[in-house]
Amino acid sequence: MQIRPEILTAAKKDLTALVAIPSVSARAEGLPACADKVESLLRDAGFLTEQHPGDVGPFVVGETGDGPFTLLIYNHYDVQPEDPVDLWTDPPFALSERDGRLYGRGAADDKGEFVSRLAGWRTFRADRPEALPFKLIWIVEGEEEIGSPSLTRFLESRFSDTKADICWWEYGEVDKSGRPIVLMGFKGILAVELQCRTARADLHSSLGAIFDNPLWRLAASVSSLRDASGRILIDGFYDGIIEPDECSKELAATPPFPLADLQAETGGNRLLGGVGPDNFYAHLNFTPCLNVNGFHGGYGGQGAKTVLPCAGQMKLDFRLAPGQHPLRIAELLRKHLDKHHFEDIELTILDAEVLGVRSDPAHSVVEMGAALLEKWFERPAIIQPSSAASGLAHPFVHKFGATLFGAGLTHHGAMLHSPDENILTAQFEKMIGFAAEFFALLSDVAEDRAPGSLHA
Ligand SMILES: [Zn+2]
User: What integer pLDDT is reported at residue 341 of this predicted model?
Assistant: First the structure.
């Protein structure tokens, strides 16, 4: 199945125009210009549009239609910095096409996702220009790559009493064999730094006979946090976790790829105790974990330096399950450190904004969406109960009450955040086709011409 060539040409033109605006939120660069472009694309496609200021970049909102349910689409127009720029084959802010791929910063994350949906929308509207029989709210932000500092506040103020039934998440993945993945959830995250100082300045290591060492203290404190199976030993850590429903458990019980593949790909060769080929995927989906991201202090240069360092730092992140509030976990961590006589270790919260969420994979939008994805991608869709990673989805799920639906065109070699970011032209086309038919199907359901209900 293919879409009309002029649709694809217009979509490439839009993507070219968006990629040409270096909307790098980390440098607060190009954001108003890119917001204006996004707004004009939505306006030209028939949406009632508005912009609202964010802390760093404006929010663009497009709305249309009315009916028995609401579809919310979330995207972002900001991108990661292009550095290191000399590792790009072609300039990062000029869309280039070669070997069946479209390259450029934002080609995938997230301008390509946005444009494919918009091109699908236009295709759908060309056939059905009458009033949309359901409500569609499209929110495009400019601060996603810096952690969406004003998104939650913006949603609460602009959409204080708006509910939505479905949230089409800003991206989705296609695995390396071309199977589309529908993401139903994300883990939450808490990132912290631990600091320990035991002297005014670095000392001669002979004094280690009488003075304690901050790196020993950090190592001892962190090793008290977890056992060899990865189980976290902080009192109350697992309290309040929302257990996966039966359907999610069933989905996670059948890994869509073997553990050996992941091991071969990553070189990861030390599994946590109790993790094996049968349960690794369930762990990726559901199990909270604690990582040491970095451990710094003392001397790391060439040769020996017999020093007793005066201070050290350690960065940690927790990937959390739905029901675990990051700030509560930070409190429990503080209590744990005090209880184990690490009162002198300073705890700084770096990130506690993202809560874990999981939507119901048995929701009818998932079944409908997955069937359409299968039709366009010619491979059965994988329904993934939760990403192993984190995304700021809880305002959409908790505030709007929406079911998460994460489908998109981010392929295995998309090089997100890296030089030569790209999408596959064929998948771009498939996503346009999927989007067009998805909008049409939702219209049919709203008009009772297709079975099903899309209320959350
Ligand atoms: Zn990104």
Answer: 97
Query: How much distance in Å is there from the Cα of 108 to the middle of ligand 1?
Result: 9
Could you tell me the distance, in angstroms and rounded to a whole number, from the CA of residue 144 to the centre of ligand 1?
Answer: 7
CATH 3.30.70.360 for domain 188-239+290-354: yes
Give mean pLDDT, residues 255-268. Answer: 95
The burial of 98, by beta-carbon neighbours within 10 Å (0-12 exposed, 13-18 middle, 19 or more buried), is given as exposed
What rounded mean pLDDT belongs to the chain?
A: 96
Q: How far is the centre of ligand 1, averaged over its atoms, from the C-alpha of 186 (Å)?
A: 15
CA–centroid distance, 390 to ligand 1, in Å, is 12
Q: What is the mean pLDDT of residues 349-361?
A: 96
Q: Which fold has domain 5-186+356-446?
A: Aminopeptidase (3.40.630)
Residue 314 CA to ligand 1 centre (angstroms): 25
Distance 419 CA to ligand 1 centre (A): 13
- The amino acid at 86: D
- Determine the distance separating the centroid of ligand 1 and the alpha carbon of 427, expressed in angstroms: 19
Ligand 1 mean position to 109 CA, how many Å?
5
- pLDDT value for 455: 67
- What's the 107 CA to ligand 1 centre distance in angstroms? 11
Question: Residue 96, CB half-sphere, CA atoms under 13 Å: how many?
Answer: 11
**Domain 5-186+356-446 matches domain 188-239+290-354 at the CATH topology level:** no
* Gap from CA of 60 to ligand 1 centroid (Å): 18
Domain boundaries, the chain: 5-186+356-446, 188-239+290-354, 242-287
Q: How far is CA 333 from the centre of its chain?
A: 25
Percentage of the chain modeled with pLDDT above 90 = 97
> Cα separation of 372 and 1, whole Å?
12
CA 170–ligand 1 middle distance (angstroms): 10
